[in-house]
Structures are given as structure tokens and as C-alpha cells.
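During the reporting period, our protein records have gained a C-alpha cell line. One record among many is quoted in full directly below:
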Amino acid sequence: MTQLNSLDILQTERRFTWHWIDGVKLLIYFCCIWLIVYFLSDDSKQLLHHRMVVLVAIIGIWRYSWWFLNLTRALIYEYKTFPILRKQADALYGSGWRPPHIYFVIASYKEEKETTEKLLELMIAECRRLGVPASLFLSADKKDEMIVRAYVQKHVADTSFQVIAIRQTLPDKRIALGQCMRSLSRHGVIHDCPVILMDGDALITPGALIKCLPFFHLNPNLHAMTTDEKAIFHGPKWMAEMTELRFAQRHLMMQSHALSKRVLTLTGRLSLFRSQEIVRPEFIERLENDYIDHWLWGRFRFLSGDDKSTWYFLLKNKAEMLYVRDAMVYTVEHISGNGFRRMLQNLLRWSGNMLRNNGRAILLGPKVVPPYIWWCLIDQRLVVWTSLVGPIAAILLTMQFGWGFLLFYIVWLSLTRITLSLFIYHYAGRIHISFPFLIYLLQILNSIIKIYILFRLPRQRWSNRSNFTAIDTRDGRIWIKQLMANYLTLLYSSALVLFLALYTQSLDFYTLKEIIRGLTQLFGLY
């Protein structure tokens, strides 16, 4: 378990560290694959000629080509595009340029005292480095507010740092952020100053803001940026490694997307906006009361996913966005109780936020959204179904041909997932032998959860806030809507299974004449 009382844990950039034991684990992994291949029967090897292998190969070539395209774009951004931007930003900062003021907006809800004080310590230290006045607009309950005020009064005597607190009466992050922004608007903001939206459990690493702020001055069309993330994890080790995997994949994909001057999310952990943009009434209204009109569920309000709402507003207005790959923010994760249940809750929230925003973003079209980003949004929908083709086909063919095909499928999974992992290790900072297994587990769970959420978009839950619901339980027709959602889930899932069963010839395709003959024989009429 990582402790917060040392700044040494806060790496400012990703660095790969080699451990000899990781190399041993990797060698054992490849030896296990070789042993499975060695003991495969000749009958199992004949399955290489099965027509299902052709379909899986086609989907595999498409998926892995797409993945390696993103990897290539990420490397171009990392080694060619961003270094030029970094050199310009460092030159501007070195010339003495500073923003006239910095604004922080934080919605804190029942955070650990240790986390809140560490957040303030790092924030104030960063303001001292910059040497410019700063204002913190804080939405918090009474306890959090007292912690913040006590710490600030004790530690900022030599710094121009003020706190404007707005008492949070409801555990609704959107309303809390909206109140902060309205207060920010009433106080008045200096034009083109940075406004930093942060979560109450986010820790800024030393120098992160210095790396980010010059970009606003260099590019007048840039309206928002976000940074790299890592986690300080208090909980099961397997969940810590899963979080490490998720952030490493995020780092890779965000760099690929940033090459098109957009990203797919402006993360709520830490994102920066221009001051005049964030106090626009329509921006605040979008954040507070974002909603969609659904053909089945009607109009419902978004509860979580505030970062997706701010992103959609800027995307719709063709605003440029930037991923600052060498600036780091840490998120503090406290996991208690059932870790697997907490993981499912997170996947439900993340998947729901993505699906609720994905459809309307696609409808903006490639004239508003850069074509590559637009296709990324479409791909998010397609992968929901294609990710399940392999597992379903493996089950069908194992039932048809026996355990030999399952061994063959395990070899395929092991080789493909370790290939992906070898590239992800570069961004994770070390070799985690669990990554191939976690990649596959997340692939299956994400697809199943997204199919479930796809027909139940209003379902929303926040594990660390009250259990609000976007579904009007007073609606007398709610049971009809739920029945329709269950029907559609079963229909689409069954269609996928039926197609694969027919394609793999696990299920014979009979003509109408044969079906009638079979029924008449069954009832003794033939």
C-alpha cells in the first residue's frame, strides 16, 4: 500500500524500470505456451483449417491493425509532434511569461483528511513555483470545508492564495461544479486565464502546471487540455494492476487522439480550460443539466460523466484540445469491501458515460469532428460486439470438437494478448505478467456490461456518492420499458450467438421443407 506522506512516490513522468524477476515470469509464460502447443493433438491442429478461424482472423486483422495504427500515431505524437510543442512551451516559460491569475475549481465530497491536505500541499507548492495569484473555488460539505480552511490559514501566509467556499448540500457533483462556476462568474475572471477543474482526490505532481499553462498562450484556438494519470492505490493488488493497465492504455490512446487535436475525454481528475469558456452560461447549463432524449426511456438527466459533458460542448464547437503527455496527476483510490463488486460498479459507470455521449457525438458528423476521431467514436460501438465473437465461437466449437479446440483458443489468446502487453509495458513502467489475463478479462466484462447498458442508458450509479437514479420510478409504464430493454438485450445477443452457431456449423441450417417434415414426424402425422 502506497502512503501519501512522501513526495518521492509522485513521478512527474512515466519511466520504465526493469526487474529481473519480471523477465523470469515472462520466460515462464512463453514456456507454458510452448508446452500447450507441443501437446496439442493432430486433430486439434487440423482445426486451423476450420472456417471459424477465417472469421476470427479477419476480425483479428481488423482489430489489431486498428490497435497498431493507434500505437503508430501515439509514437509519432510522443517522439515528433509533442517535442516541438514542448520546446516552444519551455521557451515561452523561460522568457518570463506567466498567466496573471490561476483559478482552481474542486468539488470535494467526504474525502479522507490526509488526501485533502496532500492535495492542498501540492497545489500551493505549484502556485509558489509559478509565483502568480491563485483562487480556489471549493464546493464541499462542512467537514471538508473546515479541513481546507484550517490548512490554508496555516500554510499560505506567504502566498497570494484565496479560498471561496460554496457549501455543498447535495452529493451531486454536477450541481456542485455548476455552483462553483457561477460563483467564479460573479467574482469575475481575467480573460484567457487558466481554470483548472480537479477532483477532490487528485494530486498534482511538481511542475505539472508549469508544463501545461504556456500552451494556452501559444495557441489561441486551444480551449482545453488534460494530462497523464497514475494511481496511488489502497486495496487489492489485482485491482492496483488493473488500474495500472487502464492508465497505461489510456496514455497510449490519448496520444494517438491528440494527433488530431482532439481527445475522447477531458478527464475530471484534472483538466484545464480557458476562463472565458468555462463561465459561459451555456457551458455551465450543459454541465449542470446535461440530458438526452431516448426513444425508449424519454428524456433523462446525466448524473455522472461531467467530464464527458464539458468535452461534448467543446467538441460541438470545434474547439481544439491537447493531451500534455509529460504532465502527471495522481488519483488516490481507496477500495474497501468486495473488490470485484467495486470493479463492476466502475465499469458500469465508465461504460454508461461513454455510451450516453457516444451516440450524440457520432451524429455531429466528420465535418464537425475530425474524421479520425469520428471513426474512433464509431469503433467504440463496433467493438462492443466484435469482442464477443471469439469467446462465443470458442464455446460453440469446444462443444462440437471437444477440449482440443479450447486449448487451441488458449494459445491464440496467450500469443495475441502478450503481444499487446509487450507494447503496453513501455507505458506502464514495468512488466506485469498479469496484463495479458487482465486485458482479456476487461475485454469480456466491458462488452457484456456495454451490451447491458446499451438498452438501459438511464441506469447510473456512483459508488462514493448517494444512489441517485435518472429513471422516474413513479412512471406507471416503467415495467413496460424494462421489459422492452430485456427483450432487446435478448434479441441482439441471441442474434449474435445464432449467426456464429450457423457460421461455425455448430447448428445445422434446415430448409423450411425439412422443418415441416420434422414437425409432422414429431406429432405422428407423417
